[in-house]
Amino acid sequence: MAELQSDGAADEIRWFEAVDRALKGAPRDRLTSHTEDGLSVAPLYQRRMDVQPQQGRPAGQPWRIIQRVDHPDVAVANALLLADLEGGADGLDLVLASSSHARGFGVAGQDIGAFDRLFDGVMLDLIEIRMDGGYETSSALALLIAHAERRGYDPASLRVVSNSDYIGKLVHTGVLRSDIAMLQRRMLDLVGFCKDRGLTASILNADGRLWHDRGATQAQELAYSLAAAVSYFRDLDLAGVDFSTLPRLVGLTLVAEADQFGTIAKARAARRLWAAVLKASGLPDIPVNMHMETSWRMMSRVDPYVNMLRTSVAAFAAGVGGADSVTVLPFTQALGLPDAFARRVARNTQAILIEESNLHRVADPGAGSGAIEARTEELAAAAWSLFQVVEAEGGLIEALKSGQPQRAISEARAARDKRIAVRRLPITGVSTFPNISEAPVRVLAAEADDVFPAFQHIDLPVPGKGELLGAVTEAL
């Protein structure tokens, strides 16, 4: 997408004259492409002089490099994460076997001893720890806090992000084992537990990966993630949580794709949509804590080295788009558990972008770009329209009951599959430029976890204002 200075009207005329000669009578709209959401992408844009940089990650502050930890053996996981932290990672994404993103693996630690081994040698107060345990996230958080206190850390000194997300569980399995009222009470208990221990990071997560991995377009991912966040706002409000603290309690996870401009626009549009919801709800204007992870669905098993190129573009776009933290999936992730080399490449991808390319030095570098501003505005408008459709059905839970998101995503996925099948959407290394002599890559072996022994039955209190998780912590 080319751009011109705002005073370059004459240059634009000459450019189109050259285009007309090259097209030999064909219409100019042949140069206009369209996104999966039907948004037009023109070949030429004027620079925008009427915009200011968006508020997001502070200028000059690098995003946090978060490494995924998902090896079932806690001793091996400990060795891998220590290498990650020594090699420049700022934090860890602890993926338990119970997470919907574990994909057959996941850390298997289920007691305090396992957490002691997992975090042996880790300076907990110097890093960010994201807890991704599915329905066991709250228990895993309790284990982490218990481990930290045993080692003499004040929980208030830690940056722990809890990715509790019952909507994600519903999307992943199609069922909930508890009714919404009970889940709201457990959320209030989680809020109380974290407040009593001084934890200030977000404890609920609106997760765009759930939608993206199932085939959602960028607008769909934004709309349904926003609807999930609003659902959690309502749950917390009904539970009696202080209205002014709600925006800090809900975080956002989005996907970074190899579509460079689309990912930049998606990150920027997410912040605009978040601000719009807060304004409409009368909530304080607090920027969302936005984490981005490179796309799982773009990872190929064939010629996996090409995944390095895809994740590099995605990480670049996430950082430029204003993500607060980024996880790059190692290039062998689709084939199994990544080894130390694949993990080093993943974290060094980000380290080079930050330390050598200095991408973090400018706040919102896409501001003023005619192409990026147009893409951001149109994507935000498309996502907002879809978000309103969900709200008109009574919110995301009711929309899921009616099947509206499922149908929309299925249609988008079918259309994408058709384009891939006829090579209108080429996949480098797979449908185009395949390397049929590519040598196999190395991944780590992981034995199946033994059946974990059942604990003695313990009577627990009903969810209150932290009493339930406090009792769980004592039991663990």
Report what the structure shows:
The chain contains 16 helices and 14 strands. The chain has helices at residues 9-23, 74-86, 112-118, 137-150, 166-173, 180-196, 209-213, 218-238, 246-249, 260-281, 306-321, 340-356, 370-392, 396-402, 404-421, 467-475, and strands spanning 2-4, 33-34, 40-41, 44-46, 64-69, 91-95, 128-132, 159-162, 204-207, 250-256, 290-294, 325-327, 337-338, 443-444. With 476 residues, the chain is α/β, with parallel strands linked by helices. The strands form four sheets. It has an eight-stranded parallel sheet with strand order 8-7-6-5-12-11-10-9.
**Rg to the nearest angstrom?**
23 Å
Q: What strand line-up does the widest sheet have?
A: 8-7-6-5-12-11-10-9
Q: Give helix % range.
A: 40-55%
Q: Average pLDDT across residues?
A: 91
Quote the beta fraction.
5-15%
Envelope shape? globular
- Quickly give the structural class: alpha/beta
Quaternary organisation of the protein chains? single chain
Question: Treating each run of at least 4 consecutive H or I residues as one helix, how many helices?
Answer: 16
Count of extended strands: 14
Question: Briefly, what is this?
Answer:
Helix 4 (137-150) links the parallel strand 7 and strand 8 (159-162). The protein is globular and about 80 Å long.
